[in-house]
Design goal:
By secondary structure, the chain is α/β, with parallel strands linked by helices. The protein has 16 helices and ten strands. Helices cover about 45% and strands about 15% of the residues. The radius of gyration is 23 Å and the shape is globular.
């Protein structure tokens, strides 16, 4: 739809969102939304919200909700962006996670001069949404915040990452390897499967946390005489400003948050690039772990076809998979997978996952609109 056609339909859209006083009371809650009483909307056009919540940060993107073909979706402008901390309820608790999510949505709307009454759809994609009960809890909470006309979609953050590489289409596989890791896939007819993503205690050893935790263990083993000497000892101690391996114990347990530990991954990569055998072994094992997660999803969904030679997109997201000068984990994962799936199509998205979440909100919303009109 052209901007002129959009304006011509404005009156019809306004009639679709008529809020009575009782409904306004039901979702006008908390100081977090006080800005709605203090500002005049810059625009009363319809908007979408896309949220990507991981173990490290939460990002909310606000985009206009316009009708046009899917091929034009990548041209939707970003009206505003807000960033907050971790929103994984398994890491920070349910109350803190909800506060973070609500604040980041309010910030995004405030920045572009919009109110909740202008929101048409929200795709909230957060880590820790692993079961329908997780979805229902978040949906119920969102319903208390937003007016009834807003379409709500709650998914795992891996879905937003996949969408960021496929322009809102849920087909193929995504591999996330940042603080945590997960592989998630979809067939074109809607079947889905996942592997890993259960957190460090349950074996996500290809993650940034897993890599760094093994490096810390290697330092302690070397100090005890239970393992080989390694360049990791001096490099990690220097990075943390510590003078001995004994001090590493206190540093680790003072704040064992996943992101804090995972921040040591660049040190491990640097040591491997300089030829340290212990660091090199840790990274090689991480490549195998990440590749095995993707392989499990692809085979369960049959994305590679019966003979293993069908093409499928593999979206790769996360700091662990970013290119390094000599020790490139992402490239080694692809090389490993290519032995089994010669037509795997690696995609490194040009937009962040929160944009993918907004694209999903647009796709979900438009699909329902077209079905309603049919």
């Amino acid at each position: 739809m052209t901007p002129k056609e959009h304006e011509n339909n404005k009156e019809e859209k306004d009639q679709e969102v008529v809020l009575d006083s009782e409904e306004m009371k039901s979702y006008t809650n908390g100081e977090i939304w006080n800005f709605e009483d203090e500002i005049m909307p810059v625009s009363d056009d319809d908007v979408l919200l896309g949220l990507d919540g991981g173990a490290t940060s939460t990002v909310c993107i606000c985009m206009p909700c316009l009708r046009f073909s899917h091929s034009q979706l990548h041209s939707l402008p970003i009206l505003s962006k807000a960033v907050a901390g971790c929103s994984n309820h398994n890491s920070v608790g349910e109350i803190a996670a909800r506060e973070t999510l609500e604040q980041v949505m309010a910030d995004a709307l405030s920045k572009c001069g919009s109110k909740r009454s202008s929101v048409r759809a929200i795709c909230l994609a957060v880590s820790g949404v692993n079961h329908p009960t997780d979805q229902q809890k978040i949906l119920s909470w969102l319903r208390d915040i937003f007016p009834s006309h807003v379409r709500l979609y709650v998914r795992n953050d891996a879905v937003a990452a996949l969408s960021s590489g496929t322009i809102g289409k849920l087909h193929g596989c995504v591999l996330i390897a940042g603080t945590g890791t997960i592989a998630y896939g979809f067939t074109e007819d809607g079947k889905e499967a996942r592997a890993a993503g259960a957190g460090p205690v349950l074996g996500d050893w290809g993650s940034g946390y897993g890599i760094a935790a093994q490096a810390l263990s290697a330092v302690i083993k070397a100090h005890d005489g239970r393992g080989p000497s390694t360049m990791l000892t001096s490099s990690i101690l220097q990075k943390l400003g510590l003078s001995s391996a004994e001090e590493l114990i206190g540093w680790t347990y003072a704040d064992p948050s996943w992101a804090r530990i995972a921040a040591l991954v660049p040190v491990v990569v640097s040591c491997a690039e300089d030829g340290d055998e212990v660091a090199n072994k840790i990274l090689l094992e991480s490549v195998q772990e990440l590749a095995s997660s993707v392989k499990a999803v692809v085979q369960r969904l049959g994305l590679c076809g019966q003979d293993g030679k069908d093409a499928f997109p593999l979206v790769m997201v996360g700091g662990v998979l970013e290119a390094n000068m000599r020790w490139d984990i992402g490239t080694k994962v692809i090389n490993c997978l290519s032995k089994d799936f010669p037509k795997v199509l690696p995609i490194r998205p040009k937009v962040e996952p929160a944009v993918g979440a907004a694209w999903l909100a647009w796709n979900f919303f438009m699909k329902e609109e077209y079905e309603k009109e049919a």
